Amino acid sequence: MAFISVFDVIGPNMVGPSSSHTAGAASIALLTKKMIGEKVKRIKFTLYGSFAKTYKGHGTDRALVGGILGFETDDERIRDSFELAEAAGLDFKFECADTDEDDDIHPNTVDMQVEGFSGRTLFVRGESLGGGKVRLTRINGVKVSFTGEFHALIVIQRDYPGVVAGITSVLSSYGVNIAYLRVFREEKGGLAYTIVESDEAISEAAVEEMKKNTAIEDIMLVKR
Amino acid sequence: MDFHTAEELLALSENMSIADIMRQREIVQGETDAETVELRMKKALKIMRDSAHKPLEKVFPTTGGLIGGEASKLNEHAKQGKSICGSVLTKALIYSQAVPEVNASMGVIVAAPTAGSAGVVPAVLFALEDEFGLNEKTLVDGLFTAGAVGYLMMKNASVSGAEAGCQAEVGAASAMAAAMAVTMMGGTAAQAFDAASIALSNLLGLVCDPIAGLVEAPCQSRNAIGAANAITCAEMALSGIKAVVPFTEMMQAMYRVGCKLPAELRETALGGCATTPTGCAHNCRIFGGCN
């Protein structure tokens, strides 16, 4: 089992009422906001399972909107996130999905269809695992597994030989120690997602360097 | 430095307090430094302090509306000299109700070890501070001690209501607060674990049955019993009463009991208080009967 910090016991510091339905929801949305890397103009949340049934009583909806506005889990502004979203020009919508018992979907799941002010779009599916821990399981239709516990790069690339080697070579030249590296793809030769997690922050310069490779379509830099 | 069981911690505590062992463990295993660790715990202390006191000045509406204003009622009752509990317990009850009110109204709290049980540790902490005028170092030490007990339960059992019922949430918080109270009042590490073990045994079997699935009722009043139980068990241990069953065995017993609880009584809102006619009526009112 991973290291249990004293602050996993006396913590997390969070806006209530629920670590899974409030803090976890805010974390998923904040991670999504960091991934799109710009102010969000429009977002549609689709809630599944327990999120769909109980979101109002747990403030899951306000926590999700708060996360998209960039609020951390212990930011008291989450309580007023709907009003603050209006002021920020964020247009948000909630839908509840029906799920069957046999659907392979975690009970606390949310899909987010996001559009930034530049026109950039992103689709993310997130799961709240309990105790405030979260995992993203889909990015733009590709199955992934990403927790946001480390500094991370999400590289969207065409599935050609040598692309991953190019990524690691740039990181190495910038002195970044890779903690985890995983590649997820739609289909052979299609689009692939390389998720690199590191102990150190990764610089914008390293990202620019990587983008010189024409097989790389986009890079999302996610600071912890 | 690290430890995995209460026995290992007790062996280390011959030369060092539980709080300092927990600090060292955090610095070494968490790859950080003493100042960062101290600052983070002081921040947690401040959030706890705010959340234990705010509802005495202003009552915020809760998302489900099942609770709200309980801390203030207890405070007014005590101010009129009508309390039947004595000052430490009265204070603990007030704070234990305040934190869940903040939590249920989307205010900021420190999960300790969970959001649903977040009132227990601050209740005991600030009741003792009020009564005995303890300094900040003693309070921070107390939180590290509580953290050590909670860590052992997280590692070797469970502090999740969905996994092992309320005994794993309020029960764990109560054990943490009992050990904390013993060390804050000058007791030994062994006495701290006696108090923690008795506290767990007293709440063994407590189910998690939140009305409408919300962290409001019966969660809030169970924070009161968690705090009162912690003070009771700390008093017993400080007077020299030993736990018949050692903490490690009691924690394992708690976990075994938790695993045997039916799913209906593990945070699913399908049993206990949640499925009483009144509980069901609240559910329909809050969620429009769609649930």
Give a quick precis of the structure.
By secondary structure, chain A is an alpha+beta fold.
Shape of chain A: globular
> Share of helix among residues of chain B?
55-70%
Return the structural class of chain A. alpha+beta
Order of helices and strands of chain B: HHHHHEHHHHHHHH
Shape of chain B: globular
At the fourth CATH level, what is the homologous superfamily of the largest domain in chain A? Answer: D-3-phosphoglycerate dehydrogenase, domain 3
- What would the average pLDDT of chain B be, to the nearest integer? 96
CATH architecture of the largest domain in chain A: 2-Layer Sandwich
Give the domain tally of chain A: 2
Largest sheet of chain B: none
Question: What is the CATH level 1 assignment of chain B?
Answer: Mainly Alpha
Distance between the termini of chain B: 49 Å
Classify the fold: give the CATH topology of the largest domain in chain A.
60s Ribosomal Protein L30, Chain: A
Low-confidence parts of chain A lasting 5 or more residues at pLDDT below 50?
none
E-strand count of chain A: 11
Which structural class should the secondary elements of chain B be placed in? mainly alpha
Given this structure, which CATH class of the largest domain in chain A is correct? Answer: Alpha Beta
Largest sheet of chain A: 6 strands, mixed
Regarding quaternary structure, how should these chains be classified?
A: heterodimer
The figure for the number of domains of chain B is 1
Mean pLDDT of chain A: 92
